[in-house]
Amino acid sequence: MGNYSVVGGNRLEGDLTVQGSKNAVLPILAATILNKGKSYLHNCPKILDVCNMINILKAIGCSVIWEDDVLIIDSSIITTDKIPENYVQTMRSSIIVLGSVLGRLKSVMISFPGGCSIGVRPIDLHIKALKQMNINIYDTSGFLKCTTNEIKGSTIHLDYPSVGATENIMLVAVLSSGTTKIYNAAKEPEIMELEIFLNTMGAKVSGAGTDCIIIEGVSKLKDVVYTVMPDRIVAGTFLAATAITGGELLLKNVHANHLEAICSKLEEMGCFIKSNDNSLFIRSDGDLNAINLIRTSPHPGFPTDMQAQIMACLSIAKGTSIISETIFESRFKHVPELSKMGADIIIEGRLAIIKGVDKLHGSEVFAEDLRGGAALIIAGLAAEGKTVVHNSNHIIRGYEDFDDKLKQLGANINYFD
Ligand code: UD1
Hints:
With 417 residues, this protein is an alpha+beta fold. The protein folds into two domains: 3-19 and 230-416, Enolpyruvate transferase domain (UDP-n-acetylglucosamine1-carboxyvinyl-transferase, Chain), CATH 3.65.10; 22-227, UDP-n-acetylglucosamine1-carboxyvinyl-transferase, Chain. The chain has helices spanning 22-31, 48-59, 85-90, 96-105, 124-132, 163-173, 189-200, 232-245, 260-268, 307-314, 334-340, 370-382, 393-396, 402-408, and strands at residues 3-7, 13-17, 38-42, 63-67, 70-74, 107-111, 136-140, 143-147, 155-157, 179-183, 204-206, 212-216, 224-227, 248-252, 272-275, 279-283, 294-295, 320-324, 344-348, 351-355, 364-366, 386-390, 412-416. The protein has a four-stranded mixed sheet with strand order 21-22-1-23. A four-stranded mixed sheet has the order 2-14-16-15, covered by helices on one side. It binds uridine-diphosphate-N-acetylglucosamine. Uridine-diphosphate-N-acetylglucosamine binds at residues 23, 122-126, 160, 162-165, 188, 298, 303-305, 327-328.
């Protein structure tokens, strides 16, 4: 599973170019199934989740190759509508290929994604929407079989602005007959990115970024060349790492408007932040203030994907902070690990009450999920002595060359098997 060892105490300093976005590229990779042709992706991050998605694409018949730093997917031939179960179980976001395989073949068979370390992962909203689009759905011993003779556009009101359901509906609707309207759609930047990608491929999608997305079905798509947007959560993770170590960092290749909720909390904590179109500078004296309340919520609220990293920072802030996790019910698995390092955190249902301590100390800890793992590294950067973070495969699911990048900024960190 891999491990990181971190010796705390070094301040981070320097500049860093942010990798391509995981949560944008996964639905984009799924979308490449639709065009019966070639997709050329620039700035695709080399991370484990992307490898898993590439394996799914290959397993259903696509040819996928890296040519220098460009990922080329050829979906001219699709040989099966069955998504291999092992990939769906290892990567819950693979449910996103349901929409594109169904859109392309009018049938798909996929296992239920099941739960994962951050909570149960229902797909009832996806299923309800598909039924409205003239798709027959059968649940056969853990597998979901979807078939239709015609995908029909429909008006869908989501009960919750689910990112995954919004993406799946967009993917199913691209090659449908008629027009689909999604009300109460997710507004995350990654949804806007999917709209731009699909339109570059010849789709007719509008409204992403608002709560109503309109997809007019088309009959044909074309080859596409695309550059994936920067990863706002990776950017936020490095901002948090700089904040806790009292460092200064210039992030390049960022969309500062995607980071507003994160930056406003870091400013409340006492960090100095200045942004330009494509870059963002942060300076911290390491003396962080507590925050009365951070509530995770759908975009443009504070992202659940930054909850753990900001908690690591608050664990040594002056005073008591409260974090309310409203998106996932068990996304506090990093708390017992932070406690091993000396953090004073109490969980009350979906609330975490964090009493800032003077210092964290190095310890042996276990990453239970991707962002929780990143939070333990952040805590380790500020802790006295050595921290070993086990189960680090969770971290390489989403962070490209994490240790090398931190090292370049001055951290004392090493990866070992
Ligand atoms: C979620 C996050 C996204 C993050 C991603 C990876 C939100 C709104 N979504 O996206 O920002 O990048 O995890 O960590 O912040 N739900 C249902 N039924 C469904 C689908 C979802 O009840 O059919 C519930 C989920 O249990 C959860 C909430 O809706 O409580 C948000 O889920 P959703 O946005 O679909 O999750 P992801 O797409 O994984």
